[in-house]
């Protein structure tokens, strides 16, 4: 990586090693063009002018409305952002939200208040109101004492990172940088805390470590050496904080944002290298024996290789896109593959992590379950070259077309990692060995294409349930289900099967079922 000139990571050997790893590193955006005179769009102008008019109408001459955080950062970088957070001085956010509500929704209460909750690390009361179809959060300026109203400087200092500590003063229509670091760090591509890392993490939440990594990979910025050193020296404290205080839903939401990025392998490698990878799994919630530590390196290397392959064009001589490759699903598979063999309460640890640590819904859980249930079977089929159409077809129907290419990428990555015992983070690839593995999966994919099997999950029975009932004169739902499944299997084996042939096969099958029932 090429770093910003103010950042010197030579004292941190761990980070320096990550920077030099060509499989995961990225060129730092350390010469960003900042536009302090950015233009407001029409909706922003309407929202902000309404706020100023409300201040004037209520003679609140001392109140200054400022937009804080990500909106300012993105506008300075020339990006649009609809996430508007307003800070105000000398009054509570809820008081100002009520004034706005009284103006735009007279005789109605259409604003919400999210109360301070220290147990859930919500340090400040947040009010929310919709203005011109734009959701706006309103808070008072923060300070060290979370129960008091702060100043612009104290608020900026107690933000998570410097590039999020900038303000846009709505009253005076100007950008403000009270830490005198935000603009500079934004220009030079630096992720740093406004105060000493320990102060910021204890005030904000240790959760912001995940946010720090998300912003690092999203903007291709470098993580400040001071922050790296603190994380390295306090890994056990950090892990304990995640177990004790961080809500699982927050981890899941933030992780999805991280792994959706094509440079997320850097974030996963960072967590492993600084001995805090456990914060995205929370394994102690399932088992206190720490027996999973030994597979963390395999998980990290699998993820590195998996993302590396994802970024290769036409790895299997086929284009990948939204219709046949979901990056988030693929990344979740990479992260949880090595947990599939561990069981907890009757379910694989992979499923437990998806469901309970990340709090993800049934769609995610089902993908993990179906792919891992068929993973080893498919691995053996491809490596043995035993391409039985029915066996493969039944697997394709379960994992569905959308997941065929991702599972092949996953299998390639897995086979390479298993065949190359690694004692450290993957930093180079034996291309000859990799190409030998890839060749097998190309043969398998070509077989699926030639046999027109990619879309077998969409195949419908030649005869509908009512037709089967009428032709075979049956009423048992179980029997109908058996015959339906049988017909699908026959269609997989013989894609040219027609209705007449299907009826004859069903009659024979019905006779078999009847005969077996009599016996």
User: Number of helix segments?
Assistant: 22
**Termini, distance in Å?**
73 Å
The coarse overall form would be: globular
- The helix content is 40-55%
Strand arrangement within the widest β-sheet reads: 3-4-5-2-1-6-7
Q: Could you tell me the mean pLDDT?
A: 90
Oligomer: single chain
The Cα radius of gyration reads 28 Å
Number of strands: 11
* Estimated share of beta-strand residues: 5-15%
Number of domains: 4
Structural class: alpha+beta
Q: How many strands, which pairing sense, and closed or not: the largest β-sheet? A: 7 strands, mixed
Provide structural commentary.
By secondary structure, this protein is α+β, with helices and mostly antiparallel strands. The chain folds into four domains: 89 residues, no CATH class; 156 residues, Beta Polymerase, domain 2 (2-Layer Sandwich), CATH 3.30.460; 165 residues, no CATH class; 59 residues. Helices cover 51% and strands 8% of the residues. It is built from 22 helices and eleven strands. The strands form three sheets. A seven-stranded mixed beta sheet has the order 3-4-5-2-1-6-7. Strands 8-9 form a two-stranded parallel ribbon. Strand 4 and strand 5 form a beta hairpin. Helix 8 crosses helix 12 and helix 16 runs antiparallel to helix 17. It is globular, with a radius of gyration of 28 Å. It starts with 12 loop residues before the first helix and ends with a helix.
